């Protein structure tokens, strides 16, 4: 049934499914109509990534939106953060046709209201889903007879986007850096030459060593998901081969960035959060910085040391963005390498985070590894996934066992967080989309981290 199909592809924060089985032009058209009707917004920007299905899905959304009375700015090839830039700068709603880091057979949509305000299940996506289901079940319910058809305007925003980011972080005076960049055949191959190179603007003191900049939605070299260590291997090798000062890896829609140092060793996203928080707090002393509960304890420590106010949230960009707006936060970081900026309409942009790191590195003579050493304060496990059918039952088991210990505090803000008096902690939470439990552990020492990790895993996987 169509409504079951929509239930399957409409996630907490976006829409994703296989093409054409789960997501096709008919469904994109229904969503286009529903988005205009539900939100009441009459101007939309529509962009798409490099996947083969993107232009057709974008055109279907566009045609439906204009028939529903909306004017559409067709932005063509975009990174997701470029779509947020257009939405924020021009005060229009937006849709980005992308499946981010998912494999080639997928596509999807990320939607936002004007000023890049996210549309999640709780803020309109569920109503858009349900209205689209009605349209698909009864096309006659899509009555545009009394609505003047909107217009379509084609426009390229790449130069404006690049200039805006350069206006936020000035890299012109840094020392020369050699920067290896793995675009993963994703949208960073489109945006990096414009922002960090000399394709559209004056050149910077950066020697960009490109890796997989060719736009190719089949991902012929590796999946565009740098969160998986296997997808960083080529960048790590390239950094060592060319003697780069730093390596950057972007995901498919280029809204996330991962960093490796000159030795090819990955830099923790929590350490990047600390580094960027320092830079943002230097501009806005005393401001609030948002971080999620699986970030290192080093994050609130550094924020406090820099005179800022740390605020902790659940995992997930809708929670981060809501907290940023509520607290007028200057910056927000997630351990998944999403970075959010008040100067960027509270939206996430991997490119702006990368520029902050480049400026920090370029304004000193030390290596990146030395720079981040102060932020890597505690041993961590990284995220460990376990396939578990009864996630709630296993979490209850862990709660019952650790709840009897006198040196433990339990918290259920997002899954279960166990905190020990020595500062060691573990968070166990269920995936929203798969039968997985996700475990993150940080220890006061390497031994305490390993012991806590292994104890919890033995229970989860028993």
From TrEMBL:
<dbReference type="InterPro" id="IPR036900">
    <property type="entry name" value="A-D-PHexomutase_C_sf"/>
</dbReference>
<feature type="domain" description="Alpha-D-phosphohexomutase C-terminal">
    <location>
        <begin position="383"/>
        <end position="457"/>
    </location>
</feature>
<dbReference type="Pfam" id="PF02878">
    <property type="entry name" value="PGM_PMM_I"/>
</dbReference>
<dbReference type="GO" id="GO:0005975">
    <property type="term" value="P:carbohydrate metabolic process"/>
</dbReference>
<dbReference type="InterPro" id="IPR005844">
    <property type="entry name" value="A-D-PHexomutase_a/b/a-I"/>
</dbReference>
<feature type="domain" description="Alpha-D-phosphohexomutase alpha/beta/alpha">
    <location>
        <begin position="271"/>
        <end position="378"/>
    </location>
</feature>
<dbReference type="InterPro" id="IPR016066">
    <property type="entry name" value="A-D-PHexomutase_CS"/>
</dbReference>
<dbReference type="InterPro" id="IPR005845">
    <property type="entry name" value="A-D-PHexomutase_a/b/a-II"/>
</dbReference>
<dbReference type="InterPro" id="IPR016055">
    <property type="entry name" value="A-D-PHexomutase_a/b/a-I/II/III"/>
</dbReference>
<feature type="domain" description="Alpha-D-phosphohexomutase alpha/beta/alpha">
    <location>
        <begin position="9"/>
        <end position="134"/>
    </location>
</feature>
<dbReference type="InterPro" id="IPR005846">
    <property type="entry name" value="A-D-PHexomutase_a/b/a-III"/>
</dbReference>
<dbReference type="Pfam" id="PF02880">
    <property type="entry name" value="PGM_PMM_III"/>
</dbReference>
<dbReference type="GO" id="GO:0016868">
    <property type="term" value="F:intramolecular phosphotransferase activity"/>
</dbReference>
<keyword id="KW-0479">Metal-binding</keyword>
<keyword id="KW-0597">Phosphoprotein</keyword>
<dbReference type="Pfam" id="PF00408">
    <property type="entry name" value="PGM_PMM_IV"/>
</dbReference>
<dbReference type="InterPro" id="IPR005841">
    <property type="entry name" value="Alpha-D-phosphohexomutase_SF"/>
</dbReference>
<dbReference type="GO" id="GO:0000287">
    <property type="term" value="F:magnesium ion binding"/>
</dbReference>
<comment type="similarity">
    <text>Belongs to the phosphohexose mutase family.</text>
</comment>
<protein>
    <submittedName>
        <fullName>Phosphomannomutase/phosphoglucomutase</fullName>
    </submittedName>
</protein>
<keyword id="KW-0460">Magnesium</keyword>
<dbReference type="Pfam" id="PF02879">
    <property type="entry name" value="PGM_PMM_II"/>
</dbReference>
<dbReference type="InterPro" id="IPR005843">
    <property type="entry name" value="A-D-PHexomutase_C"/>
</dbReference>
<keyword id="KW-0413">Isomerase</keyword>
<feature type="domain" description="Alpha-D-phosphohexomutase alpha/beta/alpha">
    <location>
        <begin position="160"/>
        <end position="264"/>
    </location>
</feature>
